């Protein structure tokens, strides 16, 4: 949109301006409210989807609540799960859990909403303890991570 409006030829040809702005508005209208669309960059990066509270991102939650034990630099990586290294959330679909958690994929490509990763955030984690260990995420944080994981499913994990 910025490119269109900054186009110097548009100034010399004013009759083009209304058409250009109409196009920009149409672009905005079609991209807004299209969370998880193919052209949505958040789908594979930070995750600022509609389920996330204002100015909250999935990576921000992981950083604040999980990196202490699940990052490249944490002293001890819980169950060997690194949530800081690149490739999330897609990497979770090809990462296998510890034997304590039955060596299944962290994220279930057949049914992403029922992934081990999300189950571990609940009061009934199925294996080991609820994450983050010694605390609990708010419902809003859990919903944000759920949307991030579900929308981030690679097309062929
Ligand atoms: C205080 C340290 C600590 C924090 C904080 C923490 N974890 Fe963990 N995590 C562990 C330990 C230790 C284990 C292995 C024991 C268990 O599963 O209870 C683990 C296991 C896991 C597992 C299962 C891994 C496997 O293969 O068995 C998942 C998934 C997980 N954590 C996700 C998270 C998420 C997501 C967060 C943040 C919301 C988080 N953890 C925060 C220490 C932590």
UniProtKB/TrEMBL annotation:
<feature type="signal peptide">
    <location>
        <begin position="1"/>
        <end position="35"/>
    </location>
</feature>
<dbReference type="InterPro" id="IPR036909">
    <property type="entry name" value="Cyt_c-like_dom_sf"/>
</dbReference>
<dbReference type="GO" id="GO:0009055">
    <property type="term" value="F:electron transfer activity"/>
</dbReference>
<protein>
    <recommendedName>
        <fullName>Cytochrome c domain-containing protein</fullName>
    </recommendedName>
</protein>
<keyword id="KW-0732">Signal</keyword>
<dbReference type="GO" id="GO:0020037">
    <property type="term" value="F:heme binding"/>
</dbReference>
């Amino acid at each position: 949109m910025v490119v269109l409006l900054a186009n110097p030829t548009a100034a010399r040809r004013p009759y083009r301006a209304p058409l250009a702005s109409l196009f920009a508005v149409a672009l905005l209208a079609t991209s807004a409210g299209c969370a998880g669309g193919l052209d949505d960059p958040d789908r594979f990066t930070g995750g600022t989807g509609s389920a996330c509270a204002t100015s909250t991102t999935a990576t921000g939650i992981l950083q604040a609540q999980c990196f202490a034990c699940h990052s490249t630099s944490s002293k001890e990586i819980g169950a060997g799960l690194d949530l800081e290294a690149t490739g999330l959330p897609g990497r979770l679909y090809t990462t296998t859990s510890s034997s304590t958690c039955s060596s299944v994929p962290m994220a279930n490509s057949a049914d992403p909403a029922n992934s081990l990763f999300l189950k571990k955030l609940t009061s009934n984690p199925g294996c080991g303890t609820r994450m983050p260990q010694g605390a609990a995420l708010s419902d809003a944080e859990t919903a944000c991570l759920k949307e991030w994981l579900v929308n981030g499913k690679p097309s062929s994990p």
